[in-house]
Specification:
This protein is α/β, with parallel strands linked by helices. The chain has twelve helices and 15 strands. The strands form five sheets. Strands 1, 2, 3, 4, 5, 10 and 11 form a seven-stranded mixed sheet that branches. Helix 7 packs across helix 9.
């Protein structure tokens, strides 16, 4: 009650200090909002982005989580690196995999043009159970529909073939792949599933997780990258580990292709095949991230900044500056820790970039406010003195 009485006057109105704190916080908000525009939405992009504008605070959470001494070997997914295999070599891999009873097989290779002797490859594809073939899709911006852009030339020759889109949700090079698109609305009706979703729906014993994904209805979902590794085999050691392919989702593709290397939150160079593996594992886990709405993020940032500004206006200690800086740094650290906790423990993404910026600009906004009010008072005082001088001259006359 005593604290409330100090903040609110006897007439029930907010004291000028509260209004002043609100004004300064709004100024800090304006400064933060203006600064965010050329740098996406991340304060950390100023210091931590490799290309200047493609970093989010969630990338930091991913890196910290992935650097822990705890990693999980995925029990559902196995990768086969085709390395330098030619088409006959890939056919032999498919023939071997088909004998091992896989749950699903994802062939992340596009055979655009026919070659002599492809009959063995075609037969191996036809004989491989639960196979998903890769396609790329293109969008029609007029109706936001998609159609197949590239596909293996003999896809139409195989009845009942299942395809999955291998596109990543970015049109720019060197952009970080954080999300995947579950499916693409097809121009002819229905949809084209992503490569990962098609694999998870293939011969699935438990469709709950894929149904949950579809029911969420999001255009994009965050990929869970951190602390997960996959068994990877090459054609040379595949026979020795054939039993480890049983009842597994087997991804077949080239890991060392320099044209298929992408930046992710945990590393700057991840093969596309590994990104598909992480995406598939995300869908299989059924554990999806929830994004806190941007207005909620702004509300948290505004409240934190208002607290610091009000404290700055209320303190009159000799060590006020030092104390405020300590509180400011403590709140910045606390924001990062809380964000990391919710990211790791509760799968909730809170974008504390807003808070980091507003807390940084809170005291700066105080200085601007004090400086501007001092200048305004000085100008007002100058004109007041001029008016008094003029009045005195008139009186003397």
């Amino acid at each position: 009650m005593l604290f409330t009485h100090k903040l609110i006057g006897d007439n029930g109105k907010l004291k000028p200090r509260i209004l002043k704190a609100l004004g300064i916080t709004l100024l800090a908000f304006a400064l933060s909002f203006i600064l965010m525009q050329p740098f996406s939405f991340s304060a950390a992009s100023l210091l931590s982005s490799s290309d200047g504008n493609d970093f989010t605070i969630n990338d930091f959470y991913n890196k910290v989580a992935d650097s822990r001494l705890v990693s999980t070997l995925d029990s559902n997914i196995v990768i086969i690196d085709i390395a330098e295999s030619d088409r006959d070599g890939i056919a032999e891999i498919l023939e071997t995999v088909a004998l091992c009873g896989p749950r699903a097989v994802g062939l992340d290779v596009l055979f655009a043009e026919p070659r002599e002797g492809d009959y063995r490859l075609i037969d191996a594809v036809k004989s491989c159970p639960n196979l998903v073939m890769a396609v790329s899709v293109k969008s029609d911006t007029t109706n936001n529909k998609f159609s197949i852009d590239e596909a293996t030339y003999f896809t139409d020759q195989i009845s009942g073939v299942t395809v999955g889109a291998i596109n990543f949700p970015t049109q720019q090079t060197n952009r970080t792949i954080r999300e995947f698109r579950p499916n693409y609305a097809a121009e002819e009706g229905g949809d084209i599933p992503s490569f990962a979703l098609a694999l998870c729906e293939m011969n699935a014993t438990d469709t709950h997780n894929t149904e949950t994904l579809r029911q969420r209805g999001n255009n994009y979902e965050t990929i869970r990258y951190y602390s997960r590794i996959f068994k990877t085999f090459t054609p040379d050691n595949l026979i020795d580990h054939a039993e480890e392919l049983s009842d597994k989702i087997v991804l077949i593709g080239a890991i060392g292709d320099p044209g298929d290397i992408h930046s992710t939150p945990v590393t700057n160079s991840m093969p596309g095949l590994l990104i598909h593996a992480h995406t598939t594992a995300t869908v299989l886990s059924g554990s999806y991230f929830y994004q806190l709405h941007k207005y909620a993020n702004w509300a948290i940032a505004f409240t934190s900044c208002f607290f610091v500004v009000l404290l700055s206006l209320s303190l009159s200690l000799g060590i006020k500056g030092l104390l405020l800086r300590i509180i400011q740094v403590a709140l910045l650290y606390l924001s990062i820790r809380i964000g990391y906790y919710f990211f790791i423990e509760h799968d909730v993404i809170i974008n504390f970039s807003y808070s980091l910026l507003m807390l940084t600009f809170g005291l700066f906004a105080c200085d601007i406010w004090i400086g501007m009010t001092t200048i305004i008072k000085w100008i007002a005082g100058f004109f007041t003195k001029s008016d008094k001088s003029t009045a005195n001259n008139i009186y003397i006359r």
